Amino acid sequence: MNRPKLQILSVMAIVAALLLLAAPVAAKGERVLRVGTGQEYATIQAAVDDARPGSKILVYPGSPFYFETVTVRTDNLEILAQGVGVAVKAGTDIACFDVKADYVVIRGFDLTGPMLASGIRFEGRHNTFADNTIHDLSGPGVNALSCRDADGGSNHNKILNNAISGADLGIAITAGGPSMPDAVNKGNTIKGNVIEGSGQVAIAVENAVGFEISDNRIIGASFGSCVNMEIYPGSRVAQRHHRILRNQMVNCAGNGIDINAGDGIFETNEISGNDISFASCGISLDSAPSASLIGNLIRANHVTQNQAAGICLGYGANRNKVFANEASNNFGDGIVAQGDHLSLIHISEPTR
């Protein structure tokens, strides 16, 4: 006699559950949070503060932009611009996004600021910063996108397909300092970015292991190199397993790829398939006489019309492999080698 009543109650429970699943996700702690006119949150920071790990924050265009610095301290967030022209403008001497967390994604924003502002500043692991436009950041030493992690450990981050222009420095990932000179960041990827009109260095890396710098296009660095990799002064850090691949570089006042091992070690790295022109030296590996540039592969690069040599190997170079490169129409020699033990360097193909 009670079966019909039980069946009705079961159906009502199922319907109630489905209605809950279909309800708009807006309450604090739920997975999708929306920012913009007519949305649940008026500012990005308010949504970030309410988010819990695993949340997705959708940001719609502001009116005309969001004037704020967004500080992210919660792990595992996606902060995604919805549509074209979702702009964030920072205040003076701060960043549009300041990330101090892990597994954070920031994608698709238009980022700018007044004097001394950065686009994205971060410390942490496994973060992704992709498809952003970062521009018109004025002032000396301002990075469009930077990690300045004195104690190291900002590992396995991805900086992908961003368009950067009008900054003194483009992308900078650094570690170490007077108190922790041997700190290291590991395994970061800088790929597919377009960097135009840098005042100093377009891509700067310090105290690193296992980076991939690939498929970037760099146009102009008025007073510095296109890509600079170095070791903090006085450190004996060993930079290993970097892959610098298929980048296009033009019109940098310093070297195209500038490796400075300082007093440390730069070994078993690959520099392949890059196209470099109108720099000082196309590819330069150098160090203090007591340091080591060992076992690096320099292969199939096209270095042309540079002010010095095409490829420059300095002190400490030993057992490197340099082959299948085209070094043409440089004002210096195709390949220049100096220092000790250079008889062990192997050049398998002459330059043209």
Description of the structure:
- Mean pLDDT is 87; it is low at 1-29 and 348-352.
- This protein is elongated.
- With 352 residues, the protein is mainly beta.
- The protein contains two helices and 41 strands.
> Mean of residue pLDDT?
87
Distance between the termini: 96 Å
| Poorly predicted parts | 1-29, 348-352
The profile of the biggest β sheet is: 13 strands, parallel
Overall shape: elongated
Structural class: mainly beta
- The radius of gyration computed from the alpha-carbon positions, rounded to a whole number of angstroms, is 25 Å
Binned strand content: 35-45%
**Subunit organisation of the chains:** single chain
Set down the secondary structure blueprint.
Blueprint lengths: L2 H20 L9 E4 L8 H7 L5 E4 L6 E2 L2 E3 L4 E5 L5 E3 L5 E6 L3 E4 L2 E3 L5 E6 L4 E3 L2 E5 L5 E7 L8 E3 L2 E5 L1 E7 L9 E2 L2 E3 L2 E5 L4 E4 L1 E2 L2 E3 L2 E5 L5 E4 L7 E3 L2 E3 L2 E5 L4 E4 L4 E3 L2 E3 L2 E3 L5 E4 L5 E3 L2 E3 L2 E3 L6 E3 L3 E2 L2 E3 L2 E3 L6 E3 L8 E2 L5
Parallel strand pairs: 1-2, 2-5, 3-6, 4-7, 5-8, 6-9, 7-10, 8-11, 9-12, 10-13, 11-14, 12-15, 13-16, 14-18, 15-19, 16-20, 17-21, 18-22, 19-23, 20-24, 22-26, 23-27, 24-28, 25-29, 26-30, 27-31, 28-32, 29-33, 30-34, 31-35, 32-36, 33-37, 34-38, 35-39, 36-40, 38-41
